[in-house]
Write a structure and sequence with these properties.
By secondary structure, the protein is an all-alpha fold. It is built from 4 helices and no strands. 70% of the residues lie in helices and 0% in strands.
Length: 103
């Protein structure tokens, strides 16, 4: 779904990017001010990222990096107070319950 969404988004963003590039280039030539082209720089990074996600290898590289983190730095993935137990869930449920009266 994420790849399909990215490809669909890329159609619209690619059209916007193309029109913006043409318009900004025409404006820069007309006003003789190259600073008008400046917005193309961040837009090109967004376009490249979306293209890499939709048609490139970004998702595979992200998967490899995630697997690397799980293998080599698994301590970063631990919960702050450890695993949640059934008793912990019961304490939370009782504290949020308006009808439960503990004896």
């Amino acid at each position: 779904m994420q790849i399909a969404w990215t490809r669909e988004f890329l159609k619209y963003f690619g059209t916007f990017f193309g029109l913006a590039a043409v318009g900004l280039t025409a404006g820069a030539i007309k006003k003789k001010n190259p600073g008008v082209l400046l917005p193309i720089v961040p837009l090109s990074f967004i376009f490249a990222y979306q293209y890499d996600m939709g048609y490139g290898t970004l998702l595979q590289r992200m998967k490899v990096e995630a697997e690397n983190i799980m293998d080599t730095q698994s301590t970063l993935l631990e919960l702050p107070k450890g695993q949640l137990t059934y008793e912990d869930l019961e304490k939370i449920r009782r504290s949020q319950s308006k009808f439960f009266i503990e004896k």
